[in-house]
Amino acid sequence: MLVTSGAEGRQLEEPRVRYLGLEMISEPVKPHLLKLEEFMWHQVEAFEPEIRDLVGYCLKNSGKRIRPILLFYSGWNGDGRVSDDLIKASAVIEFVHLATLVHDDILDRATLRHNDSTVAKRFGPEVAVLLGDALFSQALKLAADFPFVEVCREVSRATRRVCAGEIAQTFERGNAEIGIHDYLRIIDLKTAELFRVSCFLGARLGGYHDAFTKAVAAFGRYLGMAYQIYDDCADFTGNEDRIGKTLGTDIASGKVTLPVIYLLQALDPPARSSFLEEVQAGDPNDVSNLTRDMVECGALEKARELFIEHVTMGEDALAGFHDLAPVGKLLEISDFVRRRIPEPLAGCR
Amino acid sequence: MLVTSGAEGRQLEEPRVRYLGLEMISEPVKPHLLKLEEFMWHQVEAFEPEIRDLVGYCLKNSGKRIRPILLFYSGWNGDGRVSDDLIKASAVIEFVHLATLVHDDILDRATLRHNDSTVAKRFGPEVAVLLGDALFSQALKLAADFPFVEVCREVSRATRRVCAGEIAQTFERGNAEIGIHDYLRIIDLKTAELFRVSCFLGARLGGYHDAFTKAVAAFGRYLGMAYQIYDDCADFTGNEDRIGKTLGTDIASGKVTLPVIYLLQALDPPARSSFLEEVQAGDPNDVSNLTRDMVECGALEKARELFIEHVTMGEDALAGFHDLAPVGKLLEISDFVRRRIPEPLAGCR
Fold it and tell me: Is the interface score ipTM higher than 0.85?
């Protein structure tokens, strides 16, 4: 036995979840989340005996279940009853998400995830590549357990788009002249796509009509883009202990994100040239200096505005559907995000 | 533009295909194979613009289309008419196969595939991981274009099993005490599974009944195992120029395959211990010496017998269905394999 499987890996107690205050948002869907944990652990048995311990190892160190929460809220039926279809669909999304995490950790050469060794570090990159593939396969196998093809179709298309976004980001690494348009396209693909499909499937499997399903998918998409903008800003302004990672890792690896793009726009030509040289040489300025510059020149304030703009576009997508049960819940998430998530950006106002 | 896409990468002219004599087998399904090429190149447009050139690059360097040939033969309708469903299903299988090749080349640190740089070598392992994922996603997206879930279900399950087999093989690397049972389990998963599902889908989409579909799946499985046994023997006995790769790479990387297992069984305890030490130290005997030992002790002859046994089990699975159009064609493949493929083993008789 490589690891002990079991349900001891509950996500709700995780420090970062507490920091983000997600308990408030996850509370109404707690029965769903517990059922999802149980379902996912039960799925371990669906894998070949040779790799069950590995799958258990990944599950023990998996995430915050943000996408399942969105899916449950989007399919909310008014009385909080737990639907098997929503549980299964959220497990599909989480297995895809797990697969991308396992592969991302190879690409980022990460050694730790949620305070435990990454699969790549512990079992080697070979196993990590193959295990990510197996997790993704099982996600699609589960999707194919629905009697209709729509879940497979949406999830496989979304995953292709996520990968395309990550490849595009890899190609842009070290390119300090990337524009806002390219940045938004990348985060739309790599992050917003799984948020979008989570909301879409929730509403679809919750039995809602096409117009609402489309609206809720747009809500998820904008929220996903806002989430990534937040994350990219937090890489400069976050509190390392609270967000649980080292600041400045994006720019150190040549990833030029929104606040950097705005900073570059604000710099005078000589300062801009010298910054570009630093990034291209893989030796960017000290992070705290960079963050100070971003505050002073208004780059973080502009990023915050774009963040709020995306949250608002998400809310606007739901206009006209206020009579439907999910809308109240989704606006609670949106409101929560608007009020709480920009916290680390407060310094730039 | 990274590469030029186009249909110039036709596989039928490839040297290894000529060596294997696959033209004879591919001749009756040539219209299907040409349609498949066209269909796959057309699929490039289904990917996000950011990664189309990469997909084209993979297509240009892809394989022998053995699995599509099996699929076309399994769904053979008697008059050679090309069915769109069979083309689409074979493209699903080939995209999965392409994805596994792209990932395998990272794991094997391979730099060449079909005389061109591997994706991992040319674009880096990061891009190779993500591109493999995107190809696999698109395979499942195509599978979900069928109006029923069976294609998705079979293909995703098969892919999970392929990955499990490859992970098991990775864990066994350097273990010279692996038994025949474990070896057969690994090749059943990592190789035979895609052969099996190709035959299954061919018969299913060709409109054949359950009993025959099951039989033809068993045929594919045994043929796949025989194919892998052949490949593992050819790693010792092949002609480097003709099979297009360096001999002895399996054992050099600690992969203990069938002829080695039989060799170990035949060695006396001191010779066995010294061989085990060499393998564990990653420094196996010179390949030509090893091959000579395998011939002398009968290890290659035993491997050949197990190869023939699997071909025969495949043929036996089709007994009772000789009135159906695909059976004659499938037995032609089987006969071809039996007569031609063991050629490099001739030395051991």
Answer: yes
